[in-house]
Amino acid sequence: MAFADGSSSRQSLIPSFLYASSSSTPSAAAKSLYLEKMLGSSPRSFPAPASSPSSPPADRSGFLIAAPKEPSKKIEMYSPEFYTACTFGGILSCGLTHTAVTPLDLVKCNMQIDPAKYKSISSGFGVLLREQGVKGFFRGWVPTLLGYSAQGACKFGFYEFFKKYYSDIAGPEYATKYKTLIYLAGSASAEVIADVALCPFEAVKVRVQTQPGFARGLSDGLPKYIKSEGALGLYKGIVPLWGRQIPYTMMKFASFEAIVEMFYKYAIPRPKDQCSKSLQLGVSFAGGYVAGVFCAVVSHPADNLVSFLNNAKGATVGDAVKKMGVVGLFTRGLPLRIVMIGTLTGAQWGIYDAFKVFVGLPTTGGVAPAAPAAATELAKV
What pLDDT does 73 receive? Predict the structure, then answer.
C-alpha cells in the first residue's frame, strides 16, 4: 500500500539502531548501548551488536569532543626555565631598588666615613646639595646598578637552587621539620657567590661616593682604583662584605619565609591559593619590609667596616674599630639604614614576586604543602 510504503521510507531515514524491528536488527539491549553512548552516559555491560553484512559500520567518532588545549605552557617548578626566571627576577629586584635609593646610600656612606661633617640625615642631604648640586645625589649609580644586578641574579637564583638542593638531601619529612635551617643554609650559600660578583663594584662605588674628585663613575673610577690598590684590591673588602651580607641575606630570606607563612596562617582568613595576586604581592611587600628591619640591625656593624675599609687606603679592621669604637660600629648611621633597608627589602620582594607572577610562577613563601604520604613513609624507612 502507498501508506505502508511511505511509512517504510520515513522509517528508513532514522538510523536502524534507534528503532526496534524484527530479527534483522540488533537486540534491544544493544540498541540501548548506542543511545547511552550518544547521550554521554556510562555504558552498561551488554554484548556488542553484530555488524550488518550489507552496510559498513557507522563511524561514531564525531560524537567525541576534543578537550581544549592549554593557552600557554607554564614554567615547570625547579626546571632550568624556573631558575632562569628567578635569576632575571633577582636582577630586576636588586638592581632597580638599590639604584633608586642611591641618594640615601650616598648620605649613609658619608655619615659613616665623616660623621663630623655629615651629622644627620637632613644635614647630610644639605651638605651634598650645597657642595655637589642635585646631580651629586646620584653619584656612583652605575656601579650600584651593575653591581647589585649581578648580586641579585646570584642571590635569588642560587637561593632557589640551594633551597631545593638541601631539601632533597634532607628528604620530605626533615625538609618540612627543619625548613628554617634549610632557608638559612640556602641563603648563606647563595650570598657567598653573590658577593664575589658584587665586591669589585662595591669597592669602586664607595670610593666614588665618599671621595669627591676621585672619579665621576665606574668608567674612570675602576682604572684609578686598580692603579691605586691593584686588581686584588678590588676584593680587599670581601671578608667584611661577607660579614655584612651573609647575616643580612640569611635574615632576609629566613625571616621573610616565616613572616609570610604567619600572615597566611593567622592574618588572612583563607588559604594562599584562594587569595588574589594583588593581595599575595601585598603580603610579599609587607613581609619583606619587616624582614628588612631585622636585616639592617644584624648587618650594620659589618656595613660600617666595609665603608671604612673601601674609603681608606691600607686600612685594617683594627683601624676601623679603634677609630669608630664598638658602639659606633653598631649605631653610626643605623636609623637611616633601617629606613633604607626596610624599604629596599620590601620593594625587592615585591618586584621579585611580581616578576614571578608575570611569568606564571607562584609567589614566594606561604604555608608549605604537605609532603605526599608515600614520600613521607619512604623517608621514615
Answer: 63
